[in-house]
Design goal:
three-stranded antiparallel sheet, Rossmann fold, 17 helices, alpha/beta, elongated, formyl-coa transferase, domain 3
Length: 411
């Protein structure tokens, strides 16, 4: 059963986090911390905001910085503060906030924080307990430090791209922001480790996260396999490993959608069960298909033999029949299928969140179910929504001080 949210304080409710990040990696890190109850303050440039606010899609295709689907997802549960970090007065305000904070997240290019006097050496002198995490494409040093990058570059340099795609074609990249999300997960775990160390030692520390290294860490099996054997794992299309059938096969269309089924059969027992279910046990007597390893060497012939059976059945029929016999199989879900998948529904994974401008939408929850301190799901902040609240509540600024900062475009 899905965990039910209650009034219990979040697991990280005693933490104050300054999120200076933009776009994906840092913002997703802050989102995770906010989901566990941390007081995450999103710091954005006055009048401009996070660049993610310019990225769609937008409802009804009307561009509005408050309704960017990317921004709304990445910044759930945060408070919004506008502050010009490039100004001396803005930097001074940030230092006051950092003096009370537990964590600071930033993903500017290396050297930017130092150029505005907000580097870790400066901030840790003000608050020795501060944990600061800097996310960048290649880390804070090294020959690539100042190179520009995106998903394509990260996939290419990490080696991930080389092992993806069809063997007779060029390497294939993933889409979206996978490298940034992966780096965010490492950042989150690094922050939690640093906080535990702070409880032990009494001092915070600096965390330097490289998106390139995060992606290389993700496919250690391929790299370790090469160092052990000297052999490079080649691209295999929808297949993986040295066994078969581990692939995607077409099946009978249903409800206007083309049928596809994913198979992940590597165990000899599962392989035998599959052939029995297909009423093709005689293939076990064929030396080409006697076991999953031999089958991998003749996968095209195998696929041609079993394809007629698959084309006679829908994905629903096939997946349930195989799973009932403990054979790994799955639907190749389209996006709308994912949203209606009964497993997600049963566990309460999708969360409906209201936003005063964007409206009500479903958002992905978290893969953690913590009964005693369940995750907290709140909406994304409006640009500068909590500026007065944060500066008055945390720093004691009065109306006159706030008005002066606003007149100077500091907030």
């Amino acid at each position: 059963m899905a965990a039910v949210s209650g009034t219990v304080a979040g697991a990280l409710s005693e933490l104050t986090v300054l999120d200076l990040s933009h776009h994906v990696a840092g913002a997703y890190t802050g989102k995770l911390l906010a989901s566990f109850g941390a007081d995450v303050i999103k710091v954005e440039a006055p009048g401009v905001g996070d660049g993610a606010r310019k990225v769609g899609p937008f409802p009804d295709d009307i561009h509005n910085p408050e309704t960017s689907a990317l921004y709304l997802y990445l910044n759930t549960g945060k408070k919004g503060l506008t502050l010009d970090l490039a100004s001396d007065e803005g930097a001074a305000v940030l230092k006051e906030l950092a003096a009370q904070a537990d964590v600071l997240i930033e993903n500017f290019q290396p050297g930017v924080m130092e150029s505005v006097g907000l580097d870790y050496a400066t901030l840790s002198a003000i608050n020795p307990r501060l944990v600061m995490a800097s996310i960048s494409n290649f880390g804070q040093d090294g020959p690539y430090r100042d190179y520009r990058a995106d998903t394509m570059v990260a996939m290419a340099l990490s080696g991930q791209m080389y092992v993806n795609g069809h063997p007779d074609r060029e390497p294939l990249s993933s889409s979206g922001y996978q490298p940034s999300y992966q780096a965010a997960l490492y950042t989150y775990s690094g922050i939690m480790a640093a906080l535990l160390a702070r409880d032990r030692d009494g001092t915070g520390q600096y965390i330097d996260i490289s998106i390139q290294e995060a992606m290389a860490s993700e496919h250690q099996f391929t790299l370790n396999g090469f160092t052990a054997s000297g052999k490079i794992r080649m691209r295999a299309g929808n297949r993986y490993g040295s066994v078969h059938p581990t692939t995607i096969l077409p099946c009978k269309a249903n409800d206007g959608k083309p049928g596809l089924v994913a198979l992940g059969i590597s165990d000899p027992t599962q392989y035998v069960l599959l052939l029995q279910l297909l009423d093709m046990p005689e293939l076990l007597d064929d030396p080409r298909f006697a076991n999953p390893t031999l089958c991998a060497n003749h996968h095209e012939e195998f696929n041609a033999l079993v394809r007629p059976w698959f084309m006679e059945h829908t994905a629903d029929e096939i997946v349930h029949a195989l799973q009932d016999n403990r054979i790994p199989a799955a639907f190749v879900n389209e996006v709308d299928d994912v949203l209606e998948d009964p497993q997600y529904e049963y566990r309460g994974f999708w969360k409906k969140i209201d936003h005063p401008i964007a409206g009500t939408y479903r958002y992905a929850g978290l893969p953690y179910h913590m009964a005693e301190a369940p995750p907290v799901f709140g909406r994304a902040n409006l640009l500068g929504e909590h500026t007065d609240e944060v500066l008055a509540g945390k720093l004691g600024y009065g109306p006159d001080r706030l008005e002066k900062l606003r007149e100077g475009d500091v907030i």
